[in-house]
């Protein structure tokens, strides 16, 4: 369906933001931003990491209060900084990082905060019935009695959306909903959103993926450095134009021609660990080996195994032709394995530690201490160097890393890894949540590491990324790994078959 | 009025909660003193005079603060690494027991050799007492809150057995009490003639050492990393279980030094009432200090002032000493509340 068909009626806006300005200390996150959203309309919010998208939506939803400006819902001004009022006015938000209570069930999470104070019971039957009804209507399959802690990311997101719909939201704000979804889950989400639009809901949608924006939005707003720099009807623009407005210049993805294999730096033979079954893999110097597949099929186990946080149950791992007697995170690092973890918030960084402490997390023992005494001067100098070399935008090395936008956090992790000149690099979803500029930057850095002889394992759900960068490709499905195919040897359709588990019977 | 998160609170803002909490606890105490029939100003006047008003009072307060610094440090060190050590009480008694076992004549060494031996022996005993629950935690995931808490009761019964049996003073006329330490095993006074022993200095040194470990050593870095995000610490190759065990050794050792200091510095022998809950009060001290090792010294002094002052006030005008407990409890609760204001800013519109 074309976006324009559902056509936004230009009646009174359901939502209006006028002259919004917000500063955090010296950082201007939003400056004089105005826009309005109409009934049945989808607005996409685009912008580099740190451009101020989340901040703007947090102001809209009342999490932060703007220094200047007004927020209006259905013609009446919303009191600043009152999420309750925003909810009551029919604005629902699905945050970039979820806000569900893990140890409660789905229906309890949905009921939480919707009951009047002093109600004696949460009325489970009623809540569950309404939840089931909404589930069916919006194609949001999820069991109301399941414990949220046991759900997949995609399912949790559905709960978040259900929660908003349960409160009769007329406006849905979705902050990077697809960053954590598989392509299949993204399709399902879009089906839900289309259903919502047809019922007259309005949506603000944030994403770094331009094809998604082109597919779902009616109108696009582009933020740069906190300012609204462009507004386009979707029919009047295209992905290339949006990309260049976003970064303020031409966007060029790095050219990464396929290279022949160097010597094998790491081999797995019949490796079984976690969900991995009997995996054979060779990482060659000077090559990027891509792993395609729907997430949750063993990618985590594969990267954990090579990273040294998962041990082999059977099979063999060789590093440069030798079988290490012992394999853990520290040994892996000592053997020149650089690790870019999938979850930078949970595994990659310590939120309240500053940049310096995070930068030396893997090397404090070897490079930044002597006989148990930390050398903070040296650590700080090193961090300043990383900030410079890898263009980490931040107030300084003493900033807690949680204040950095996702892209800048990832640049610091990248710097931490690459600065050690690793022989082998495990990059698990290295560009998730990053803007186009940052994506290109990370890719060109990985390509440069390849050129200098590193063996790189690139794990991604984004097939385009895999097909563009990898010298050879494996497909992973239910813990099994396909044989290696040279770049271009498989079509997208053939890869899709492997992902679905076809071919393995013949192969093994 | 609304709350807005603050990303990087300033130093003033971080010092505000303890200050506010303490002031507010005084206000609550004033109200209660009034109800109990005392004039609040007279009550506070007596508390402060009783705790700080004379040389004798001041030294008494410092002596009272000493074990609290040790247990406060023990708790702060452990809590920073998210090792919930509720067992400082047992560890303190373990230190006291070793001091008595070795210091009542078993080792007839000169003081300069004997005292460090006793201190180290006590620290080792406390370290081992906490090492067991810590190992149960790292090996089998047993909740250390439960094990350390319950072990307090078990250990106290064990001490009671020792004092009725093997450690009972033959000259004690039947009292459950150990023999007295030999003179070489006694911590001397800092200044001759003043009732303040070297245990207090040792406590201050320990606070500085813990601070230095925290900021300047790899162990401190590891303990903070493990406390804040064990998953990221493990991913980075920090041996999480080992760090937890090292934390346990340090924490247990510190609490046990408190036991050594009380026996060798103050009491001279071991009885079952050596500690009126120093181990538990250490938790209050550590929380009031926001787990900062230097803050522990200040918090321990505050708590000691309240306790010593309230004793003396109560003797003078008969307002019950429970006032001290209420002040501490309310200071702690208000502190938790006030911490909100380091993380959030109040906005009015
Ligand atoms: N609570 C805060 N305190 C200080 N600075 C903040 C705070 N929240 C955001 N910022 C800063 O404001 C700017 C905008 O951040 P915001 O999270 O809105 O970016 P974003 O466009 O959502 O980025 P991303 O695409 O990475 O999610 C960034 O420079 C960020 O570091
Ligand atoms: Mg954001």
Largest sheet of chain A: 7 strands, mixed
Largest beta sheet of chain B: what is the strand line-up? 1-2
Low-confidence stretches of chain B are none
The end-to-end distance of chain A, rounded to whole angstroms, is 42 Å
What is the percent of helical residues of chain A? 25-40%
Secondary-structure class of chain A: alpha/beta
- Cα distance spanning the termini of chain B: 6 Å
Net shape of chain B? globular
Q: Could you tell me the mean pLDDT of chain B?
A: 90
C-alpha-based Rg of chain A, rounded: 24 Å
| Bound heterogens, unique | adenosine-5'-triphosphate, magnesium ion
Helix and strand content put the structural class of chain B at mainly alpha
The total of beta strands of chain A comes to 22
Q: What's the order of the H and E elements of chain B? A: EHHHHHHHHHHHHHE
Helicity level of chain B, as a percent range?
A: over 70%
Oligomer classification: heterodimer
Please state the second-level CATH architecture of the domain at 264-353 and 421-507 in chain A: 3-Layer(aba) Sandwich
The count of helical stretches of chain B stands at 13
pLDDT averaged residue by residue of chain A = 88
Residue share in β-strands of chain B? under 5%
Please name the defining characteristics of this protein.
heterodimer, A: 508 residues, alpha/beta, Rossmann fold, seven-stranded mixed β-sheet, six-stranded mixed β-sheet, 19 helices, globular, disordered N terminus, B: 349 residues, mainly alpha, two-stranded antiparallel sheet, binds adenosine-5'-triphosphate, binds magnesium ion
Please give a structural write-up:
Chain A is of the alpha/beta class. Chain A has a domain at 264-353 and 421-507: P-loop containing nucleotide triphosphate hydrolases (Rossmann fold, 3-Layer(aba) Sandwich), CATH 3.40.50.300. In chain A, 34% of the residues lie in helices and 24% in strands. In chain A, helix 15 packs parallel to helix 16 (436-451). The two termini of chain A are 42 Å apart. In chain A, 48% of the residues are buried. Residues 1-9 of chain A have low confidence and may be disordered. Chain B has 349 residues and is mainly alpha-helical. Chain B has a domain at 66-290. Helices cover 72% and strands 2% of the residues of chain B. Chain B has helices at 11-35, 40-52, 55-80, 88-103, 111-140, 144-164, 198-216, 218-228, 230-235, 240-267, 278-288, 293-317, 322-343; strands spanning 2-5, 344-347. In chain B, strands 1-2 form a two-stranded antiparallel sheet. In chain B, helix 1 (11-35) crosses helix 2 (40-52), helix 3 (55-80) packs across helix 12 and helix 4 packs across helix 11. The longest helix of chain B is centred in the middle third of the chain and has 30 residues, at 111-140. The radius of gyration of chain B is 21 Å and the shape is globular.
